[in-house]
């Protein structure tokens, strides 16, 4: 059956988008934090080392024997000016012969800059007549930072792809039960309207035919009126069945109690003996169990049993027999089996798997014009699941059928 697939595609995309945005924000924040933290650590470390270098140089200046100045780190370069004129500098390959200009006039400030393709960090300090400029090459640190950024970006992209695939899978999986429920619902509505259409069509055509004969009396058209009335009764029953089916399908409140199966069966079957006599059918009950106490929802159990007995009467002719049996389960002595057996039309092997489906009716039943909607057994099926009993059927086409309920004994 076709349903509007678009609804789910849209929902899927929406869910996926929300997932991805949340994950991306989170990932982005994590990566940005890592990067900022790493840069901060690296720069503060460099500044600290340059600061130490400065102190080291100062002690050598104080001792007035500043030739040659020993450096803590060979990567550092130092330029010392006295009254604006260069007094001392370390030879290096970066600022060969040319004096590097001061990047900051502010005292004791670290400046980072790029020159001739290299990165430097510089500290300028004025003390008295002296100006000390310490420069450190930070190419390797900058390289580490840029490497880290590319690794983080790479990992970020890989994890985004990975997360995208996981989200896609999860979104699909999350929507499966919803999609199934939606499909079932849509199919149910489609089937129900289809089933309701037939009686409505009959009623309206009968009414129309009455309109065409304004001079006839009601007595003349008694048959037409009777047919229309029969169809409205069918409609009413169907609507009631549909209602109880959807009720069973929704959230059900169970009302479990201990009761005696034998008395329940006596209570139900009372009404059927008259019907059996009137329809010229044989009707009997046999209890082959000593203890018949069970614990379940009595009303719902009764409903299932009624559906089975109603069907047994419906699908048998005069002269057939209907027999209700309660016996111990031979396979599990914890269970009782209640079966409704008839010698009626029986069910073909192909139909048995579909018997409990909504609106299912055997073709031979439809052709014989036996009234029904195919809802009864599906109500029995849902109800059985709700109260936790097992139901089933065995049948021989043309010979008869046997519907059973397996229920746990109450000790
Ligand atoms: N006792 C039975 N004997 C033969 N066929 C049966 C019996 N009970 C049920 N069926 C088959 O199962 C179908 C579904 O039953 P049900 O859900 O009660 O719907 P309905 O009785 O309204 O047709 C029936 O149409 C009939 O074909
Ligand atoms: Mg029925």
Integer-rounded radius of gyration: 46 Å
What percentage of amino acids are in beta strands? 15-25%
Write out the distinct hetero groups bound to the structure.
Answer: adenosine-5'-diphosphate, magnesium ion
- Topology-level CATH name of the domain at 252-408: Heat Shock Protein 90
Number of strands: 12
Instruction: Provide the residue-averaged pLDDT.
Output: 89
Annotated CATH homologous superfamily of the domain at 252-408: Histidine kinase-like ATPase, C-terminal domain
Q: Low-confidence parts, pLDDT < 50 over ≥5 residues?
A: none
CATH hierarchy, class of the domain at 252-408: Alpha Beta
Provide the CATH architecture of the domain at 252-408. Answer: 2-Layer Sandwich
Spatial order of strands in the largest sheet: 2-1-5-4-3
Order of helices and strands: HEEEEEHHEHEEHEEHHEE
Number of helices: 7
Main structural class: alpha+beta
From the structure above, extract its key features.
binds adenosine-5'-diphosphate, elongated, 7 helices, 5-stranded mixed β-sheet, 12 strands, alpha+beta, binds magnesium ion, 411 residues, 5-stranded antiparallel β-sheet, Heat Shock Protein 90
């Amino acid at each position: 059956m076709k349903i509007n697939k678009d609804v789910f595609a849209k929902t899927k995309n929406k869910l996926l988008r929300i997932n991805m945005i949340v994950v991306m924000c989170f990932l982005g924040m994590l990566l940005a934090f890592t990067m900022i933290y790493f840069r901060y650590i690296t720069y503060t470390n460099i500044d600290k080392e340059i600061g130490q270098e400065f102190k080291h140089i100062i002690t050598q200046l104080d001792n007035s024997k500043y030739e040659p100045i020993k450096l803590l780190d060979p990567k550092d370069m130092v330029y010392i000016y006295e009254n604006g004129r260069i007094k001392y500098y370390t030879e290096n390959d970066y600022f060969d012969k040319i004096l590097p200009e001061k990047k900051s006039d502010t005292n004791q400030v670290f400046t980072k800059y790029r020159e001739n393709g290299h990165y430097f960090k510089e500290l300028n300090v004025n003390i008295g007549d002296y100006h000390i400029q310490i420069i450190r090459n930070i190419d390797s640190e900058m390289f580490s930072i840029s490497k880290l950024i590319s690794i983080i970006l790479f990992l970020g992209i890989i994890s985004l792809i990975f997360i995208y695939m996981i989200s896609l899978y999860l979104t699909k999986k999350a929507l499966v039960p919803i999609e199934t429920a939606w499909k079932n619902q849509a199919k149910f509505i489609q089937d129900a309207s289809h089933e309701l259409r037939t009686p409505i069509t009959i009623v309206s055509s009968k009414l129309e035919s009455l309109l065409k004969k304004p001079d006839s009396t009601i007595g003349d058209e008694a048959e037409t009126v009777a047919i229309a009335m029969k169809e409205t009764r069918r409609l009413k029953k169907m609507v009631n069945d549909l209602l109880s089916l959807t009720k069973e399908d929704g959230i059900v409140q169970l009302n479990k109690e201990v009761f005696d199966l034998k008395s329940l069966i006596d209570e139900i079957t009372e009404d059927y003996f008259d019907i059996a006599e009137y329809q010229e059918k044989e009707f009997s009950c046999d209890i082959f169990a000593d203890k018949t106490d069970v614990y379940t929802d009595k009303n719902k159990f009764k409903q299932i049993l009624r559906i089975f007995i109603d069907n047994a009467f419906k699908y048998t002719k005069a002269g057939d027999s209907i027999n209700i049996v309660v016996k111990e389960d031979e396979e599990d002595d914890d269970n009782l089996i209640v079966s409704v057996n008839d010698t009626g039309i029986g069910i073909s092997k192909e139909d048995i798997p579909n018997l409990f489906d909504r609106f299912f009716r055997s073709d031979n039943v439809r052709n014989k014009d036996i009234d029904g909607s195919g809802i009864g057994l599906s109500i029995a099926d849902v109800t059985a699941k709700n109260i936790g009993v097992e139901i089933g059927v065995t049948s021989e086409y043309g010979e008869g059928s046997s519907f059973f309920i397996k229920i746990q004994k109450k000790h």
